[in-house]
């Protein structure tokens, strides 16, 4: 089965992201607005318990994540994906690195660009238009996220949350 | 904010439910297939920590839930909702009762009919047609669910998982 690891921001930020996603994001109906920590990866049923235990430990050793959105950006020319760009922060980098280390699959292809996608699979023309419009908005938002989620993908492409882990030690 | 409490069944059952929901369920894109334990209820930010703590305790004292789907049924004439009917089981009833007791809001309006919705907001004609078709399928499925989820609703009607709780004591 295909799993993924993501953070869900506050309702306020999700609602704001959805106001764009409903028009521009082909994945709008498949998953709520999120910050991907680990792209989809295959896990079989035997591997799952180890990954769950490791995830619990990583979460416990982590700190709540600082989210600081400071602009709209694009992955162009790699893709026509438009997103809220999140400032790099050690709390985010920690999660990314831990979830790309044994027993999780390694990533040596891409760097980590933390973001919330608000548009994807746009045509060249749409991409240029939407980006032009959004660049004029002042997009700034700060918050702290205290949970990380393990999800799996259904056959229709939609994602179901399997388990959440609180970041940091229980108080 | 509006919260709800639900169980998500296995990918296998969700995929099967979605094969019907994609055609018949107006909520298809808003939430994956699920078993509602508590209908949407309002929680303000100050109440949330107490509810989370109570939920953790209820989950710890609970047992994993036995799901036994044995037929397709309808809420007609109350509504044109079609669902996989789940046999009553003490593990399910326990969760339902605990989540309709202080500090959670009480429900004295309806009884608990555990189910997975596969069609809703159908016209009379559609409802009759779909029900007729589905009644000919043999729908049987058993599984155990070991997590319960607290979700909140976004402005677009979609649901985000806030936290999951494992059912039973940690081993």
TrEMBL record, chains A, B:
Its EC number is 3.1.-.-. Gene3D superfamilies: Cyclic phosphodiesterase. A motif (HXTX 1) lies at residues 34-37. A motif (HXTX 2) lies at residues 115-118. InterPro entries: 2H_phosphoesterase_YjcG-like, Cyclic_Pdiesterase, YjcG. The active site is at 34 (proton donor), 115 (proton acceptor). Pfam families: 2_5_RNA_ligase2 (PF13563). Keywords: Hydrolase. It comes from the Bacteria. It is an enzyme of class 3 (hydrolase). Belongs to the 2H phosphoesterase superfamily. YjcG family. This is Putative phosphoesterase ACFFHM_24325.
């Amino acid at each position: 089965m295909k799993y993924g690891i993501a953070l869900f921001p506050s309702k306020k930020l999700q609602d704001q992201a959805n106001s764009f996603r409903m028009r521009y994001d082909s994945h709008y109906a498949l998953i709520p607005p999120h910050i991907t920590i680990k792209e989809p990866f295959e896990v079989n049923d035997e591997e799952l318990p180890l990954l769950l235990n490791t995830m619990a430990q990583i979460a416990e050793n982590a700190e709540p994540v600082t989210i600081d959105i400071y602009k709209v950006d694009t992955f162009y020319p790699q893709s026509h994906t438009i997103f809220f760009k999140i400032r790099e922060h050690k709390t985010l980098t920690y999660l990314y690195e831990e979830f790309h280390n044994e027993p999780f699959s390694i990533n040596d292809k891409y760097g980590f660009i933390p973001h919330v996608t608000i548009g994807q699979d746009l045509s060249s023309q749409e991409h240029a238009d939407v980006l032009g419009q959004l660049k004029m908005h002042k997009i700034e938002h700060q918050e702290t996220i205290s949970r990380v989620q393990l999800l799996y993908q259904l056959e229709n492409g939609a994602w179901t949350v399997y388990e959440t882990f609180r970041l940091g030690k229980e108080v």
